[in-house]
Amino acid sequence: MAEITLKSLAHTYLSDPKSPEDYAIREMNHVWHQGGAYALLGPSGCGKSTLLNIISGLLEPSSGDVLFDGERVNALPPEGRNIAQVFQFPVIYDTMTVYDNLAFPLRNVKTPEARVHERVMEVADVLELTAQLKRKAKNLTADEKQKVSMGRGLVRDDVSAILFDEPLTVIDPQLKWKLRRKLKEIHQRFEITMVYVTHDQLEASTFADKIAVMYEGQVVQFGTPRELFETPNHTFVGYFIGSPGMNFFDVSFRDGRVLADETELSVGPGVRRAIEGARSTNVKLGIRPEFVEVHEAPVEGGMEAVVEHAQDLGTYSIVYLRLGDTPLKARIEEDQAVPVGRAYLRFPDERLGLYVDEFRVEIDHE
Ligand SMILES: Nc1ncnc2c1ncn2[C@@H]1O[C@H](COP(=O)(O)OP(=O)(O)OP(=O)(O)O)[C@@H](O)[C@H]1O
User: What is the pTM of this model?
Assistant: First the structure.
């Protein structure tokens, strides 16, 4: 078991990189603490698999260090790192039985047979593979094969960490939910550091205590699902987390007013001061659809908006609005009427985020 530290780590697949865009991993520092259940979340191509392969030793980083419990392991091959990795597609021996497949990683490190038996039975039980133990792996369904593959990753309890690279991609949707819960249960039972790569926010937040959100080769935020939702550090996190994502407005300060395009926004003095003081032309205000206050009639401090349409999603609706030229979405609960034609909006100050050059900055509300 280990704490995994990534120190000034960067990676490029090019021999002559010239700009930050040439890097699959841009210089980063990051710590995965011993025993944590983590997710690495981001869109396709942001560098998740590259990072995982650097941790497991399948790939050597272009610069920087990988440390396990403070020891530099850059030169150690995967077998020397004591890491288990579960891939998107099953990695199993078709001609072996399920039992022998699960026993393989243990026998490989000369584990006594009594202990092999104990662990295989325990993992098979958790993954509901006990009835299949005597079957040849080639006769299993795709789902069962992937469960065996996961079992092979989980069977050793002496590994430094288990890395999962989108392990549920080939699994039937109904089973996915169940397996994610199982993984969480296994994590709680065995307390092994687990890093779970996915591009699915639901998958990340049901599995992980903390999520590292990756964007263009950088971890732009490392936080609990709640932190990512309530205080996204970067506009990308705002867009990517939540359904629908956060609303953003390009804002400027002119003649004492805060403007989104040419429309004046009604904001408190702290927000106004922060926008006035921002030293960039790339300034955005962000607010989640859940936190936009929607009124049918004019209210004090309310901004008049056009209601374009609404989407009824059962227990709530998403209302598509336009404030001047700026589109935005608001979520309203089923007990509230959906406004028709016009609506009056308020943005509670404490729910607004200010983003300068895409990163969140603190607002002093005093
Ligand atoms: N072997 C390689 N050679 C050259 N470029 C690569 C190689 N592998 C990945 N890349 C590039 O590095 C960047 C990061 O890719 P990576 O596979 O790590 O992202 P990812 O987030 O895991 O994406 P996905 O979810 O699609 O697997 C991408 O621009 C990709 O095209």
Answer: 0.90
Measured from the CB, is residue 82 less than 6 Å from ligand 1?
Answer: no
Q: 21 CB under 6 A from ligand 1?
A: no
Domains of the chain: 4-224 (3.40.50.300), 243-361 (2.40.50.140)
- Joined tokens for residue 91: 């990695």
Q: Which atom of ligand 1 is nearest to the CA of 47?
A: 18
pLDDT tens profile 321-332: 999 999 999 999
Give pLDDT tens digits for 67-100: 999 999 998 998 889 899 999 888 899 999 999 9
Which tens digits make up the pLDDT trace of 96-145?
999 999 999 999 999 999 999 999 999 999 888 999 999 999 999 988 99
How many angstroms does the Cα of residue 95 sit away from the middle of ligand 1?
32
46 alpha carbon – ligand 1 mean position (Å): 7
The pLDDT of residue 60 is 94
Look at residue 261 and give its three-state secondary structure. coil
Q: Which of 18, 3, 28 is nearest to 221 (CA)?
A: 28
The backbone torsions φ and ψ at residue 296, rounded to the nearest 5 degrees and listed phi first, read -80, -30
Order of strands, sheet of 263-264, starting from the edge strand that comes earlier in the sequence: 263-264, 257-260, 247-254, 283-287, 353-356, 359-361
- Does 112 sit in the ligand 1 pocket, CB within 6 Å? no
Name the token pair of 344: 């009056």
ipTM score assigned to the predicted complex? 0.97
